[in-house]
Design goal:
This protein has 150 residues and is α+β, with helices and mostly antiparallel strands. The two termini are 34 Å apart. The protein is 31% helix and 18% strand. It is built from 4 helices and 7 strands; from the N terminus they run ααββαββαβββ. A hairpin with a 4-residue loop joins strand 1 (65-69) and strand 2 (74-78). The protein has 2 domains: 6-53, no CATH class; 65-148, Beta-grasp domain (Ubiquitin-like (UB roll), Roll), CATH 3.10.20.30. A 5-stranded mixed β-sheet has the order 2-1-7-3-5. The chain has helices at 2-21, 39-52, 84-90, 125-130; strands at 65-69, 74-78, 108-113, 116-117, 133-135, 140-141, 145-148. The longest helix has 20 residues, at 2-21. The protein binds FE2/S2 (inorganic) cluster. FE2/S2 (inorganic) cluster is lined by residues 97-100, 102-107, 120, 135, 137.
Amino acid sequence: MTRINADFTLQAFLDVHKTLIFKEPAMDTQPTTGDHLSSSQVHDSDKALESATAGLPAPDGPRAFRVTLARQHRSVEVPAEVSLLDALEAAGVIIPSVCREGHCGTCECAVLEGAVEHHDQILGPDERASNKIMMVCVSRAQGEHLVLDV
Ligand code: FES
């Protein structure tokens, strides 16, 4: 049920986003190729989309990604069917964990780079959007790569 609501919310945002960004030019202006949006408008629009989709689950289910452990100077591959915490443990990285379900906050890790797909029950909207912390037992990378302060 949650996935359906999240997908609906994302799709609704994207529809509004397209409407606002790609609206028809005024009748008295003649658009020319490449001048519909300035680079700052495109950048602002990308930032708005990134912010609005922060923490939403991937619409097509979990994906594999790579996590770089900055303090250990190494990377770990996280398969789609494996949690980040399990992948770290399999690589010999010890992260304290109690619930392993996103409820307790024990496994919180600092994020240095990358967007997080949050699945925990702890962080608020601002914390999620900041991409500064994550619960590695349930949360994943939104893209293909994360860098953790581990
Ligand atoms: S182990 Fe409890 S939130 Fe991750």
